[in-house]
Amino acid sequence: MKILLVCSGGMSTSIVVKAVEKKAAELKEDVYVEAVSTTQFEEKVKDFDVALIAPQVRHRKQYFDEIASKHHVPTGVIEPQAYGPFGGEKIIRQAKEILKGV
Amino acid sequence: MEAILKWVEEKLMPPMAKLAEQRHLRAVRDGIVATLPLIIVGSFFLIVASPPIPALSAKVQPYAAQILLLYRLSVGLMALYAVHGIGYSLAKSYNLDPVTGGLLALASFIMINLPQNIENIGFVLPISGLGGAGLFSAIIMAFFAVEVMRFLTERKITIKMPEGVPESVARSFEALIPAAVIMVIIYIVRIALNINIQEVIMNLFKPLVTAGDSLVGVLVPVLLITLLWSAGIHGVSVVGSIARPIWMTLLDANTQAAAAGSKILPHIAPEPFFQWFIWIGGSGATLGLVLLMLTSRSKYLRNLGRASILPGICNINEPVVFGTPIVLNPILAIPFILGPVVTAILTYLAMAANLVGRPYILAPWTLPAPIGAYLATGGDWRAAVLVLINIAITTLIYFPFFKLYERKLLEEESSDN
Predict the structure, then answer these.
(1) What is the CATH number of the domain that holds A44?
(2) ipTM > 0.85 (yes/no)
(3) Which CA distances in Å does B17 have to B4, B13, B74, B411?
């Protein structure tokens, strides 16, 4: 499962990437996860199964959705409580649920 | 407090977020943000030309003019670089050809700056209008160019090439009529009627720039940014799309004064003012809160503090904002909003009284705040001291609210066991 995380500058999502990677290793899940900034989103999103939007840029969801839908990549907004160093498991679960619904 | 947070989430946030997503503002933001690498590197040439160490400064002095050339061709041409990006993004948002949009925007902006014929040299374009002072003209001219392009394309007033013509050729023919319309309009207004468009636009936006440098003009974005963040929205990203042209204009005026050798710079509040002196550890000056967490009796807060201290030193605070959480937390939102207001007033007054140098260098925002403040002021050690004072003040402001919240968490933690 390839997850793309997007925030404003790609800085804070890179912290979340570590949290997800750590949890994925613990749960022995096959997860590849990468963080991008808003401006890199367009060129990256096509290579991923699911795109998750950081809560602080949720007001731009429509913009991300427009780009992601061109490449048929489903999106979701990460819930605020999961957006941090301890939220890895929640994010993996959320990504799975989104993919199940596709 | 809960009522305020509810109001922010339901009333303040949606229109602000919508405004920031408005296509013209988005284009301005993307265009200006794209120039930041050039401006950051370019403004460092200013420090190199006049290093903060007197002995070194004397040695560099003979070469200063030479070193400053690259500053003049980067920061000094800020509007020229931005206008292309603004036109590019705006055209893209309309599904028009972005390369043509960028090109026409660039042309429209250059054409309102008339060249002068200098003896022995030939035609020369003065660069004074192409830097920060021309930023608002650049924005308006980019809008003008792309809107003309859109108007003509929507009404199918373009030259269409038959199928099979290479795309690049077709594209240049499609741009013919928009280019002609734009150039004829600019000719009539700028040359035939001799209206100095640049000056008109500058005067129009002058009150806004003056307001942006006042104490109220500092407190409004500070409050909006923390209010938006307390509803979990990236405040700087939203407010910055509106305020950044003002901040850049102030910054450029300061860099020019510094390059000309003045000791006291004209403006207080370009973006580094907020970045280094107010948003220490991230928006809401959360470094103080993280420091308190490090020794918390609550296991959760202590773990979070340890995980957040390194990002915090680099001014990344999403782990704290969402993890603690501060978002929609009626206890911690108070110091989160109050602290920056206090430090903003203090810093403003300190700079107005020239106790601390004013910022004019743009440094990467992930540097630790005291270092960033030192660099931003061109090497004023008092700036670093002020940052440390601000950290102490915000830590004190966080303290009672932190204790209150910690007690609440401790109760929950003990009832869990």
Answers:
(1) 3.40.50.2300
(2) no
(3) 18, 6, 31, 37
